[in-house]
Amino acid sequence: MTIQFIAIGTSLGGLEALEVLLAGLPKNFPVPVAIVQHRHKSSDDKLRVALQEYSALVVTEPQDKEEIVPGYIYLAPADYHLMIEVTSDAVREPSFSLCVDAAVTYARPSIDVLFETAADTYAERLIAVLLTGANHDGMQGMRKIKARGGKTVVQEPSTAACPIMPEAAIAAGVADKVLPLADIAPYLVKMCNF
Amino acid sequence: MLREQLEDIEIQLLLEGIHRYYGFDFRNYALASLKRRIWKIIRAESLTSISGLQEKVLHDPECMERFLCSLSVNVTTMFRDPNFFLMFRKKVVPILRTYPFIRVWHAGCSSGEEVYSLAILLQEEGLYHRCRLYATDINEMVLKKAKAGIYPLDAMQYYTQNYLQAGGKKAFSEYYTSAYEHAIFSSYLKENIIFSQHNLVIDNSFNEFNIILCRNVLIYFNRFLQQRVFNLFHESLVQFGILGLGRQETMKFTPHEQDYEQLEGGEKFYRRIR
Ligand SMILES: C[S@@+](CC[C@H](N)C(=O)[O-])C[C@H]1O[C@@H](n2cnc3c(N)ncnc32)[C@H](O)[C@@H]1O
Asked: Where is the CheR-type methyltransferase domain (chain B) (predicted)?
């Protein structure tokens, strides 16, 4: 089954981890990537600009109902949940959708929300990656991804700035693969038939 | 058939039933967030499936009440995205100054925090006495709060920060008096505001406006419904009138894209040019 979407979640220590991961994805990486990084609700463009430094792909904060296309790294905007949905029954093209619903596991954007809606849309054509962090966000989302046949990758806790989030996912038994940070990008490149 | 497709069918049946029986129309709300909220309600009602919720909602009007409550998202803030209000001062106010009388429609105003923010701003720019603000929402309950203009005092610290970043000119505390852990906004701010119920899904235009603000409401609608609302706003805006949207909302890719130009400054202000 070809992979059509990659969803990445991270919290405390995420910027450094994303630097390594994004630097490992080549310019012609064929699958769209979305990232939820927990951050303060009044954050501005700085995170996007910082991530762009490390990536050969275009890093952008999606607008509501924006169509999802390869060649882009989509970053969840501050203070909005980032979700995936299909436009309608007639047009089953996935697009982004945003909302300001209550925080989930104290976070907006929440990793669970991205993961769960991506699972609904992409089922087994999805890979989710959970990186460093100090809470349990992402664990429920990974459970649903597994149930729908998608793949889940968790950062080896010993290589994480904060191991709590990866450890929570591993303990919950929702990790298909546990990889050191440096091996995650190469794994994604391989999985996307690249 | 895939499980997620079955889920979508169940949701359609639920929404269709609610529409036919109670008249509330959620059929064209954006699916992903709607689905999450529906599952939240299912858990709160100790049920296990969407069909189970359908049965309960249709036979138990009290459950329907709770359903309506949990389905509506009324999250709002004073001077949310301060830069939006700063740009309002810099780019929109000069345009408004050219009008002898200014009609503003604030659609989906929720509990009113944004409307009072705007009233304060217009007051400081010396325009408020020339303005009439129509603040509407589908939800009667939040409109009541909006009319009262009383908000928890502990939010004021954050709102003050926003106010200052938005170019506020005074001490924010001048606009309210505090009592019993609440901030009561001055009644002169309400003088030119008319609060009323309006449903963007079914109701029509009710006036012609120089400016329409509708932030973080369209994200809850699917493309079809967004289109309806953009048409409604188009009909309701004067030539060269201004439409202000939320930070992640856009007129790009809509059939009205060519009818508007975005004001400079990066915020979502669109000026109707034809
Ligand atoms: C997230 S709040 C946005 C409040 C405010 N504009 C802001 O950005 O802070 C969304 C509001 O849209 C209202 N709403 C939802 N559906 C609506 C409809 N069909 N017609 C009018 N208002 C609606 C809700 O009741 C809610 O108050």
From this structure: 1-251
